[in-house]
């Protein structure tokens, strides 16, 4: 029965258990109470406070004006309270772990309330489905401006002398009224937010001035350990000095890797104050003399920059800058230039160009324009060093021959070899197994595969026959496959978003099924899982993973800046999947926590709850793991 068929007009325990399918309130992680037309008086604290495991709550399309005061759900991360009658948002402070909040359609709320939310909820990442950008920068600058004007007001009206005739409470009240009247910092559209911040700042300001009349409150506010929104400096952004964040020295679990450097090398105009530029991709340089190995040089991209970093020295070796670009993806190849092997780096991003870089000569020698929308992912095919697969946001996937540049003038004559069609989903990752007979594409709506027959026989063609690879017990409503890597001998490791696990499966065992499905135009082929690796329970998508063959180790980052390490040697030795899903889930051998970053002993507020790792890469020896973060950080972990 649906929730409406169960509905008897009472949000009692019986109803909630019935629609959740659980036996105990404390076991419920997701709860949909939308479209029931109830009011806040129907939310009973004795019931809702038992929802201790609840992560996601949908209260949309009801008649709520507020969430009752005594309701506390400690682990709530996702709340949809859209299309209600909410009057204010002060109640959100009781849900400090909220990551995503939907308040759309509450007509009494204004833009002021959005700014209040970013101040009250430090973990909040999305409002009404849109990512919050530059929150800290705005909050820092705005608070500083308010405090400076409050200082001027205090001096101009001689409030210090009023203390002789007014007690503290009356003085705070009088100063708050005057500050609301006289302080005009910021745009008029944020008047409500300004008055709200003055209410918060004024009492602390007055008490400080009475205690320290000659000192500046702004200096105190910056130095205070309670300050979480003031500007911080982490160091220089010069390429040659490789700026590093300070690491808090604190006991950490016994792990095999330690952080050797934390770099800011993709900063925008804000320099070292930039915590919003997203570093999207990192990939180790191949060893020119050994195609199965890498060097200790890693390429990274984010914002307008592509960087090359030596993990041994933690120095930025080179930086390639392209104005107005936002780089999303990288791919390495090794080709013969003249008489010598050379590594070439391809980089793509929002402008739809493929930029070709020869790092040894410090030159970007070519730009290929074949995509009309942002390039999401690229990978070189095993069929030739110049064969590049690229995919854009509009599901255009091409195999290109980027050509070997002539030396010394670096002229190229590229051409499109094959187009891959048949999907209506944004590609996130491309993968070609060693055999070269299949192309895998992870997308926002599932994992798809084309037969390529080694590519060679299909030059000049459009390949439209495609089938979807489905995973057991993964809901058809949650089909985002956001991570994909090759293990060995046809074994693939992939991750479906929001599942809390990583899958190992054998592509070779599906070879005949894929051929039959494509010939008969069947929609899907189901895999049998070799192993499930326990991972973070999160709704955060687009977090990639990596594999180190030498150590048989899968490496994955998460939404809080942790690194998860798994040993999969046993699973690779026995590749027979006897049932759709293994009986047990494999735990990580280590989870490396995100390091606490400080400046002069004060935690940097932008990083106090960790950061999202968009991508991770591990070199062939397993000596280094590199993580590309959502907060303009590049972290290097060294095997100790």
The low-confidence parts are 225-255
Please state the oligomeric state of the protein chains shown: single chain
User: What is the number of helical segments per DSSP (H or I, 4+ residues)?
Assistant: 11
Structural class: alpha+beta
Q: Which architecture name of the domain at 426-554 and 566-592 does CATH use?
A: Beta Barrel
What is the arithmetic mean of pLDDT?
84
Radius of gyration: 28 Å
Biggest sheet descriptor: 6 strands, mixed
Please tally the β strands and state the result. 39
Kindly identify the CATH topology of the domain at 426-554 and 566-592. Answer: Lipocalin
Q: Which strand order does the major sheet show?
A: 1-2-3-4-5-6
Task: Summarize this structure briefly.
With about 650 residues, this protein is of the alpha+beta class.
Blueprint of the fold:
Layout: H1 3-6, H2 13-20, E1 30-32, H3 45-48, E2 56-58, E3 78-80, E4 100-102, H4 111-120, E5 126-127, E6 130-131, H5 135-156, H6 159-162, H7 168-182, H8 191-211, H9 217-223, E7 246-247, E8 257-263, E9 279-287, E10 290-302, E11 305-310, E12 315-321, E13 327-337, E14 340-349, E15 353-358, E16 363-369, E17 375-380, E18 387-392, E19 397-401, E20 415-420, E21 427-431, E22 438-443, E23 446-451, E24 461-463, E25 466-470, E26 481-486, E27 491-496, E28 501-506, H10 511-520, E29 524-526, E30 529-534, E31 545-548, E32 553-557, E33 563-567, H11 569-573, E34 590-592, E35 597-599, E36 602-603, E37 613-618, E38 624-629, E39 634-639
Parallel strand pairs: 1-2, 2-3, 3-4, 4-5, 20-24, 25-29
Antiparallel strand pairs: 5-6, 7-35, 8-39, 9-10, 10-11, 11-12, 13-14, 14-15, 15-16, 17-18, 18-19, 19-20, 21-22, 22-23, 23-25, 26-27, 27-28, 28-30, 31-32, 32-33, 33-34, 35-36, 37-38, 38-39
Subcellular location: Chromosome; Cytoplasm, Cytoskeleton, Microtubule organizing center, Centrosome; Nucleus
GO molecular function, one term: chromatin binding
Keywords: Chromosome, Cytoplasm, Cytoskeleton, Leucine-rich repeat, Nucleus
